[in-house]
User: Fold these one by one.
Assistant:
Number 1:
Amino acid sequence: MIKLDSHDKKILEILLSNSREQVSSIGKKIRLRRENVNYKISRLIKQGLIKEFNTVLNEKQLGLVHYTVFLELVNLQNGTEREILDYLKKNGNMSWIGTSAGKWSLTFDIVVLEKTDLDSIISDLLTKFGNYIDDYVILKLQDSNYFGFKFLGIKNNQNIRYEKYKKVKLDETDFKILSLLNTNSRISLVDLSEKVRLTPNGVANRIKNLEKNNVIMNYTISLEWKELGYEWYGLQLKLIKFGKEIDKKITDYFLNHKKVEFYYRYFGGTWDYDFGLIVKNSIELREFINEFRKNFSDIAKISDVFIVLDEASGYKLPNDVFV
């Protein structure tokens, strides 16, 4: 398990809030020399704690539709799961992919343009691997929120939400910039300018405009919580009562609870919420479930719990949305 000192925690706090923050700027904020900051970031990457540098993009501004798929696998032979994972990774519509233990063996996100035929994507998957899929659920994402800052004792520095904004028209250069930032939020202006054939100032102005128009929501990092001694559980929630006040009560609880990492709110599905819980062990999981039932048994029930074993692919928008 990785041990973090005070400087490590401050660096992570800054990168969670803005993963494009320059090393020199981080050094000034935490009173550490540039080379020391660079060394610490490189070490945290090498140790596996920092997995990715992410750009949070407003999917609705990009005209995207987001689905989450849960698969129950059966009759697996040697290498079958790996074959399915490789298929999903190569598919240009897939985003986050995770393996789990419980009813659901695999979970992944499909993010597509509104005009994309979802049926053909699912049909191809079932045609190729239907013999190994016993059950599956496809849910349309309505709302989501991520709280990666909480587990280091960091206060709510940013509350990222996907709201409706006035649509803006993007050109080919904008999409190239977004695609590169989607791959690595820390890519330099110089590298961006070489790839999109604009001056660094021209690229900087483009990025500022994308931020201003809420196409780019935030820059952050993905962490491997296992390296800090945590386990990640997924919990699926079914509402008994409905309404804006009910949703606000539940989402406020997610926001303020230090163990909840994110939530997905679905539209018209088998369950209404799917949220991630980061705990030290199953005892903390049980304590959370008891606490949740005490507070919400009259309006919601936990329908299923599973442990996330591994992230086969981190959260980035799939390549096809930028083509």
Number 2:
Amino acid sequence: MAETVLIHSSAEAPPVHPDRAVVVLDVIRASTTAVTALAQGRRVFPVVSVREARVVAARLSQPLLAGELEGQTPPGFDETNSPAAIEARTDFGRPLVLLSSSGTKTINEARGRAVYVACIRNALAQTMLLIERHPHVAIVGAATKGQFRLEDQLCAARIAEGLIAAGYRPVGRTADLVDRCRDQPLSNIGSGASANYLRRSGQDRDLDFVLGHIDDLDAAFELIDGEIIQVSASSDHARAPGEPTHEIPA
């Protein structure tokens, strides 16, 4: 059977395929926040509720709690769901417990199969690893307020286009989405609903961060036993906790 790639959003019920690896995207902002923390050498634990965040944090040493629910940072959290805020911190040894309204929920809903967390920072590396490891792939955009947001569509299309070039057969609406996104520059993210929200809420630095970090990380990140772990193309080596990731020099 030929390799296949499917793009859909978490608001949709995808066709069932038991062997399909899942790549979760929430470019603005949860997957970018997680990948940024991992690039600092942090351990990262995505959770679905404040209660779970506190349970996970209780078994870690000096955890850093970051996240939002419906745009609000929960009481007692150290940061909101912000890649720029995480990038600015220097306490790299503190593991990150991350909560978001849609992204971390989508990551956890995909458990039970191979699950990767990606963003624009590592779209190329994620594509290469998928080609090496998985004949069937679903790229899932975390629907925010039920919407498949522009930034996730563009990132999904970049990954899918690389897979199609490697011989994967697009299924569902994947080919149409790739064609529609092919000539769109990533700067178009700035005109999307998520970008407008960041501007209205005074969080422009996260938009600048997303647009300023494109394929600058040579690593992919997999959810294993509730923790996101670095894995690399051409290697089955998983990062030891606290070991920093490899960044491609600008």
Number 3:
Amino acid sequence: MNKAVVLATVRSEIEEAKQYGEAYNWIFSEIDEDKQSFTVLLQSPIGTPVGSETQIREKFLVEFVFDGYPAQPYLINFIDPAANDRGKRTCIPHCDDSFFNQGRLVICHQCNRGAYVQGLHPDWDLSAWRSLAGGLTDLKWILEVIFSRISDPTKYHGRFK
């Protein structure tokens, strides 16, 4: 797909997501055109215990790599915003469902190219990702689902340790 078309599509999705996420204080980076990526910083509204009295509202930095988008889904990664670590358990939210795959440290959903790359579901067809992903086919709704999980006290347990 034409790089200019991809960039225009991503910029449009970012603007829509910024408007939607304004109430939640989502913070968007600038687009890195060379790496074809950007990040979004999300903060859980739920405090999790750190010590005997201290509560911390964890921040999660979500990276979106958009090479090949929208023919292929975003490649979604978590980066620990404090340590700038990648690929560690401490980077992803700890929730009581399979959306955040704690074994592979990836979003296990058709909206994430990482789930295909890691071979979590060999029966998923990457070329049909839009029909498989249900409503999670653009940035705003992907972020909303991530944020809803880190905002749900019945599912969310802070950061993986």
Number 4:
Amino acid sequence: MSRILCGRVVSAALVMGLLWGTGCGAPVQDVSNVTQTSGREDIDPARRHHALAQQYFKNGDYDAAVAQYKKGLAMDPASIGMMRGLAETFMKLAARKKETLKVQDASPDTSQVVKSYYDQAVRVYDEAMEFEPDNVEIKEGRAYVLNAAMRYDEAVVVYRDILNSKPDDAGVWVNLGYTYSKKGDVDSAVEAYSRAVDLDPDDRDTVLRAARMLYDDGRESESLPWFKRAYLMDSSDSTLGKFLGALYIRDKDYENAVPVYETLVARDPGDWRLQINYGVALEKTDAPDEALLVYDEVLLLNPEKVEVYFQAADLLMDMSRYAEALDYAERGLAVNPDMANGYASKGKALEKLGTELQAAKKFDAAEARFEEAKGTFQKGLALNDPRLNDYFNKQISRQDQLIARNEAQADADQYGYN
């Protein structure tokens, strides 16, 4: 099995796992200094060093393990098992040094000590390949070290070589995709991740990795299908659901947003933020009555959420329910009278009501509504909200025109020359 980067598999198992001639709990000793007959003379000395190295490695004494591996390799320079063990030990030493540097607030990426450990590990794998140039496990180990050493161009070459032998190994494609992502080659990384997921459709981690990489690259629309796929694989992931829903809203894909928020709201009906987005999605998919019910639920949960009053008011105006819209706008302004958009909603509702009265030839009542709308827009303008100042100025002029037109129609109606 290939090593999967990014924490999926920590490392390959050490080869030659049997500890020849050592008891499980026996104290470690350097057999090169033992002269007393032990009854184990049939065990190869190189294997004893290998066994001691493994025991030191297990105990976390990596420097001692390195020394034993080197002694063993001096006796058996073709031992692939000891080479892989030595390379793994160098990786452990690098990891330990990196942790120490992090604690010291130093940068591990610029540490010459860390680089030296990685370089030594690569050299060990290079030596191993001289003995077994077609050994795929050695190639995978070498590529893994090259990635850790940030030698990504070299790692890509190795992974491509491995794929010649294992074209259907999803793990190798994942590692290749990770390497491309570290190089900043997003398109090649997505291509590799896509191939990995084709081979292993249940690999949700890789789906999420591709999605996040595209999103971080500013390609939100391309990331959406990947996030959606990951969410469908596990719809219990509420964090992903909220993120996906917000992406759908931002992308104006309200049809897909509705089922996501429907699930999230059912799971957490007390979250008014989810309710707002759910209402917006319903509103945009021609379900205004359902959206209004959701907005009412939001206001029940959080009556201080003043923007929702105005959202509901605007929705009601789209439904030609102007009196109800005016009620919501006034309720919102009662909560916070310093909201410019509240005056925009209220003024628009008053104008629409005035227009209805004018059509019914109730000219005095219509003029009163137009005058009230004008005063409402003037209050909004006084708040000096740059987003709405132009709108308010135009609406104030518009009310003057509506008032003048209303007076003319009233006269025409009165004198019968309509």
